[in-house]
Amino acid sequence: MNTRIKQLFDSLRNTLDHTSQLLYVVEPAHWSIQYDGKYITQALNQLKLVTARAALTDRGYRGAITHYGSEYTALRSILDNKPTTAKHRVLTWFHYVPDLKTNQLIIDSQSSFDRIHTSCHSTKQHLIQAGIKETSLTVIPLGVDLSIFRPAESTSKQTQRKKLGIPENACIIGSFQKDGDGWGRGDVPKLIKGPDIYIKVVEQLSKTQPIYIVLVGPARGYVINELTKRNIPYRTFGYLNDLSAVARLYNLLDLYLITSRIEGGPKQILEALATGVPVVSTKVGMVPDIINDGEDALLADVEDVDALVRHSLRIIEDSALSRKLVSSGLRKVAQFSWDRIAQRYYTEIYSTLI
After folding, report:
1. Are residues 115 and 192 in the same domain?
2. Residue 291 in contact with residue 274, Cβ under 8 Å?
3. Which of 136, 261, 270, 313 has the greatest number of CB atoms lying within 10 Å of its CB?
4. 269 within a domain of the structure (yes/no)
5. Contact 189, 198 (CB under 8 A)
6. Which residues pair with residue 236 across a beta bridge?
7. Measuring CA to CA, which residue among 81, 56, 70 is closest to residue 116?
8. pLDDT value, residue 153
9. Residue 84: what pLDDT?
10. Residue 149 falls within a domain, yes or no?
């Protein structure tokens, strides 16, 4: 049975199982939203807070709560002739992208949702400005699996670098995301993710530093093409559906660089902190909500290439600063285990509806 058919079969089974108090609807792509649904429902069940399942569809579900894990899963229900008959509905809207025609469909349907959840205060403000009632909004950040994302021993890091043929003196900078349009090559950049800014930053760094870029994720064609044009050494590992493999690649890094313009997360801020990698990031998504600038990571304004370069150089050249950021980041990220985040979902959303 192939993966897609199995997913559909499991979804049908889940929606017909009305004993679950919560159905968490995820997107079909085996990507970020599916991981959210998996971790949140697993934690809720393990903590015995509610009985919960994840599924690709809400059809046929007649339980207590349907939680749509993204605005896209909610749109399917809004446009469906047979929407869920659950008693309560919750929507997660991670980031608001202006000028999308679908935005208004959800805004016009907001009264059909008991709560609208987002992961950061910047998105909350954008949604309020767009017409979502502030009283319906709840902010709860993303989580991270601390059993998978954890620091590596220095000897293990060096061994893995040699195995991959990465120069010993290289400063390895990571970029683990999807930043091209669609699910193909991704030659057209998804500008909200800032791949053009990323290229500008690493190009400047490459003029004075022996950098090496490690890429993970689908649709990275734009970044790959631009790195190739500039003769900046890199290695791409493509899409990985094994989080343990992703964590091992974080363990290679000397620096993680986030250059996004709009985010709901990104999850990578938590993953990098958890694996002991110092971070330079734009003030985007939940980053300014959770990060103390100069203590847990170094932050720059969106599109401020010079500041991103300057912060990156500080980390590369100052090992004491790097160690300080790593140590503080590890303490900070302990607050964001999926167990703790699921507990907040229950306390701040689900318990008020059951």
Report:
1. no
2. no
3. 270
4. yes
5. no
6. 215
7. 70
8. 82
9. 64
10. no
Alpha carbon of residue 313 to chain centroid:
25
* Domain CATH code at residue 109: 3.40.50.2000
10 Å CB burial of residue 108 (0-12, 13-18, 19+) is exposed
Q: List Cα–Cα distances, 217 to 220, 246, 350, in angstroms.
A: 7, 9, 32
Low-confidence ranges of the chain (pLDDT < 50): 1, 9, 15-16
Note the pLDDT tens digit of each residue in 5-28: 555 545 555 544 556 899 999 999
Residues 180 and 307 in one domain: yes
**Residue 69 lies in domain:** 3-143+338-352
pLDDT of residue 3: 58
- CA nearest to 140, candidates 193, 182, 92, 100: 92
Q: Give the three-state DSSP class for 293.
A: strand
- How would DSSP label each residue in 213-251? EEEESS--HHHHHHHHHTT--EEE------HHHHHHHHT
219 & 92 share domain: no
Phi, psi of 155 (to 5 degrees): -65, -40
List the 52-55 sheet strands across, edge first: 52-55, 22-25, 65-68, 88-92, 115-118, 137-139
DSSP bridge partners of 180: 189
What pTM was estimated for this model as a whole?
0.92
Q: What is the DSSP letter of 303?
A: T
Based on the structure, what is the number of domains in the chain? 2
The DSSP element (H or E) to which 173 belongs, if any, is strand 171-176
pLDDT of 265: 95
CA distance 122 to 125: 5
Q: What is the largest CA-CA distance in the chain?
A: 61
d(CA 36, CA 338): 9
Q: Which spans in the chain are helix H?
A: 3-16, 32-46, 71-79, 101-108, 121-130, 154-164, 195-206, 221-229, 243-250, 267-274, 287-290, 305-317, 319-333, 338-348
Domain-located, residue 62: yes
Q: Please name the amino acid found at residue 53.
A: R
- Same domain flag for 181 and 325: yes
Decide if 55 contacts 100 (C-beta within 8 A): no
